[in-house]
Design brief:
mainly beta, 10-stranded mixed β-sheet, 50 strands, 8% helix
Length: 767
């Protein structure tokens, strides 16, 4: 809702108030304007000429189910008679004053007030269209919203291509040819260690993507950085929270392998540099067809390879006294990723009761009929053992299918061993490596001549400078254009703490809340400042205490966490709208010229407890009562999430249904109505499920729509997304047989058209 100053608010509340507009039409360098109104008005040094023949309607609308907004262009028609303006026609100004692509500002006032152009009375602003038409009687200006047109580029604020930084050949002359003119990504959220799988062992397991949330794509920008003797790749152009140099991955055929050469990562210039072509990939063993032989038992065999080190996710194997048991696992099929150089069995044990050996006195790992020595198994041991000889000659076929077995022996007493995770590690060199060599010249100062002085007075030493040549070699994997890495994305800037904001977040915190991801895009990518953003609406939507995003997700606001990389070109409006669809929010430019966000609440009885404004039924003319159409109902919601950037597809899916909505009762629609939502910003199943539930709560029923005209100007401060209630409602007018509850029924404005002294409004019932 617009925040009018108290004098204007009081004046508009009076029954006999006459409201009026004053319009500023800026020209040339925008240091000056021509003011116009419906009649000649003087406000201090500002003159508003009485040239307005007619005002157009100021319009805003939102798509309740699509989470997009629209603003309608408005027009103003000026008188253009022979002597209407400074002794001539207004159109005569076009010879010296260029209004096209310059800003306009519209202010609402009331008779008896002064200081017409205060910010607290602005109801519209934007850019004047270049399509200015006139005849001998009138001049028509088309006034565009800032969101519709941006003056410096001729595009919309929303219409900026993102990501804004590209791999251009002048800046990155050594970039792979196929990467030229591709975008440098934008990275948000947590792609770091999974936090719900217990403590990841730091010896070996923490080097593999299996145990990380996801991996950011990093585009290769320099395939032979001579200075660093490394390949260079960028993950973003803005400072990032964390980059993990130990978890940089090569991707091929659905598999991620850790690059084991020299790797360096820089957070404040977010790039990685790596050299060499050797990688290691982890493949969990399969519990399918799991068997044991000998004297022993096992439980929870599926936990052996589920990627979880937590205490509740452990396979337990028991061995009776003096006996042994052989535990057999299926080894996975591995597609060829390069030239094989090694293979290792890797196991993390949990609690072991007493001393338990693998095999006999020497211990045994079994791969087929090949036995490998292993020492004693003890509690929390992380054991790694090469099994390469079992696969001699497999460098080309990579056919590692078979059985890996642990032969466990208890010398005395009944023993048990817990296995948290087990798999194999395959080491290989990437195929299709290009080699770059360069010679660097370095100057070196050396002793040239030493001569003993006569009389025992020491030595005379002379020096000369020589040039020394050194050779640097860079290995570049020519078949790839991206590598991938674990880490955490962009950080909050100082803006999150500025302007006395108190939202629960601080500068340098990781940006995960989708509300503030949108604000960061507005600031960082579109260059907006606090004067252009209604940050109070962002704090209402996203703050950690009672932010509306928490209500729609039925969770604490700071637990609503998004993570994604925007590594493909997208229109900025489309990106913001995509995020709005996953945050059930709308972003728009208010009448005061500021970007705002409104976030839907789920609609439970406790969600809406106050309204932005109460509309008196006596001040309106009711036009219609209807319902949202049947084709807007959805009672079978599927959310695709957990996007994999190597495969470029979502890997996970959740589904929720509402049987009542699909059923045959009075509340049902006698059919299943499906909605599939791609939630690329969500990685975890909990958040995805909450999003699906939110969509179900909103879409499963038809909603009441009320259209009415406000007959008084006191409602001109309302905007789309505002929540209203009604007072003095006619009890004879029911909402499909149900009386309107003035204290508990809340409505959201979805469409508003403003004219002087009144407006037309459409609302939808949200509770």
């Amino acid at each position: 809702m617009l925040s009018f100053d108290s004098r204007l608010t009081d004046a508009l509340s009076l029954g006999n108030t006459t409201a009026f507009y004053v319009l500023k039409l800026y020209y040339n360098d925008e240091s000056a304007f021509i003011g116009v109104s419906d009649k000649h008005r003087v406000d201090g040094s500002d003159i508003y000429y009485g040239l307005v023949a007619s005002w157009g309607q100021l319009h805003q609308g939102l798509d309740f189910f699509g989470f997009t907004t629209s603003t309608g262009n408005t027009t103003v028609k000026l008188i253009n008679t022979e002597t209407c303006y400074k002794g001539g026609r207004f159109s005569d100004q076009f010879s010296t004053n260029n209004f096209a692509n310059r800003k306009w500002e519209l202010f609402l006032n009331a008779e008896g007030l002064s200081t017409y152009d205060t910010a607290a009375r602005m109801v519209g602003s934007g850019i004047i269209s270049g399509d200015i038409g006139y005849d001998q009687k009138g001049v028509t200006f088309r006034l565009l919203d800032f969101g519709e047109y941006e003056k410096t580029t001729g595009t919309t604020y929303y219409g900026k291509q993102l990501p804004s930084n590209i791999v251009d050949s002048s800046t990155y002359p050594n970039a792979p040819e196929k990467n030229i003119n591709k975008p440098i990504p934008m990275a948000y959220g947590d792609f770091y260690e999974k936090t719900d799988i217990g403590t990841i062992p730091t010896g070996n397991f923490d080097r593999f993507k299996t145990f990380y949330n996801s991996a950011f794509p990093a585009i290769i920008t320099d395939k032979f950085d001579i200075g660093e003797a490394a390949v260079e790749a960028y993950v973003d152009n803005e400072t990032m929270h964390t980059l993990d140099s130990e978890n940089v991955y090569y991707y091929k055929d659905g598999n991620y392998a850790t690059i084991t050469g020299t790797v360096d990562a820089t957070n404040n210039n977010p790039r990685i540099e790596f050299s060499g072509a050797r990688c290691k990939a982890y493949f969990p063993l399969s519990s399918s067809g799991f068997t044991t032989s000998g004297t022993g038992t096992h439980i929870n065999e599926a936990n052996i390879s589920n990627g979880d080190f937590g205490d509740g996710s452990i396979c337990t194997i028991a061995v009776t006294s003096g006996n042994n048991v052989t535990v057999n696992f299926a080894m996975p099929t591995i597609s060829k990723m390069g030239e094989y150089v090694g293979i290792t069995a890797l196991t993390k044990f949990g609690t072991v009761t007493g001393s338990l050996a693998i095999g006999g006195s020497g211990g045994q790992f079994l791969v087929g009929n090949v036995a490998y020595g292993y020492g004693a198994v003890v509690t929390n041991a992380e054991l790694s053992n090469s099994i390469a000889s079992a696969f001699s000659g497999k460098t080309d076929s990579w056919d590692f299918e078979g059985v890996l077995a642990y032969k466990l022996l208890s010398v005395s007493g009944n023993k048990t061993v817990q296995i948290s995770e087990s798999g194999i590690v395959v080491e290989f060199d990437i195929d299709n490596i290009e080699t770059y060599k360069t010679q660097e010249l370095h100057e070196r100062r050396v002793k040239d001549y030493i001569k003993e002085r006569g009389g025992g007075y020491g030595y005379d030493i002379t020096y000369r400078t020589i040039t020394v040549s050194t050779t640097k070699t860079i290995l570049y994997p020519s078949e790839i254009d991206y590598v991938y890495l674990s880490g955490k994305g962009r950080k909050y800037g100082a803006w999150v703490d500025a302007d006395s904001r108190d939202n629960g977040y601080d500068e340098n915190d990781l940006i995960e809340n989708p509300v503030y991801i949108i604000e960061d895009i507005l600031r960082t990518e579109l260059g907006l400042t606090s004067s252009e953003i209604d940050y109070a609406t962002f704090d209402s939507a996203g703050n950690t205490t009672d932010g509306h995003i928490g209500l729609i997700y039925n969770d604490s606001a700071d637990d609503v966490k998004f993570a994604f990389s925007q590594h493909k070109f997208i229109d900025s409006k489309d990106l913001i709208n995509k995020l709005c669809g996953q945050a059930l929010s709308w972003v728009f430019i208010g009448g005061d010229g500021k970007f705002k966000i409104k976030t839907l609440k789920r609609g439970a009885d406790s969600d809406y407890s106050s309204a932005d404004k109460t509309v008196d039924y006596n001040d309106i003319q009711l036009k219609s009562i209807s319902r949202t159409p049947l084709n807007s109902v959805r009672n079978d919601i599927t959310v695709n999430y957990n996007h994999d950037y190597g495969q470029d597809q979502s890997l996970s899916q959740v589904n929720t249904t509402d049987s009542t909505s699909a059923g045959t009762s009075v509340s049902g629609y006698n059919q299943t109505l499906e909605l599939v939502l791609d939630a690329g910003g969500i990685l975890d199943s909990t958040t995805a499920t909450q999003l699906a539930d939110a969509y179900k709560a909103i879409f499963k029923d038809r909603k009441v729509i009320i259209k009415f005209d406000c007959l008084r100007p006191k409602y001109l401060d309302l905007e789309i997304g505002d929540i209203i209630q009604f007072s003095n409602w006619d009890t004879k007018v029911k909402l499909y047989g149900t009386a309107l509850n003035e204290s508990d029924d809340y409505f959201m404005i979805t469409d508003i058209g403003k004219k002087l002294n009144g407006c037309s409004i459409e609302v939808i019932k949200v509770q």
